[in-house]
Amino acid sequence: MNIGTAAKQSGITAKTIRYYESVGLLPEPIRAANGYRHYREKDLQTLRFIHRARKLGFTIKDIRDLLGLWHDKERASADVREVAKRHVAEIEQRLEEMESVRQTLMHLIHECHGDGRPDCPILEDLAGDKE
Question: Which of 40, 63, 84, 116 falls between 20 and 30 A from 11, CA-CA?
Fold first, then answer.
């Protein structure tokens, strides 16, 4: 199948497929006599795997590791689990950071009068003017 068909069937744009090839997540495809990329069913399965992993927020490095584990039939499931646990820990850290940002913004919104006066605690905080 050509890149357009692979893109349609995997849910990944052709540009992104080429990117995944360039970073080594997808092997260089077979080239037809006309130079066009030709993808096999195996490539499509890999693209779907990558697509799902990206939707779950895994990094390119994690996906590379997961692909290696997926293809290694001798793998230990503990290795896969460790990658997923590490990813969950990163998500939890980002959630904590986002909650802190939300609380700060809620406080600043509460402090701002929101009227016709020019003074604004939100802008003062952003500028570092607040003491």
Answer: 84
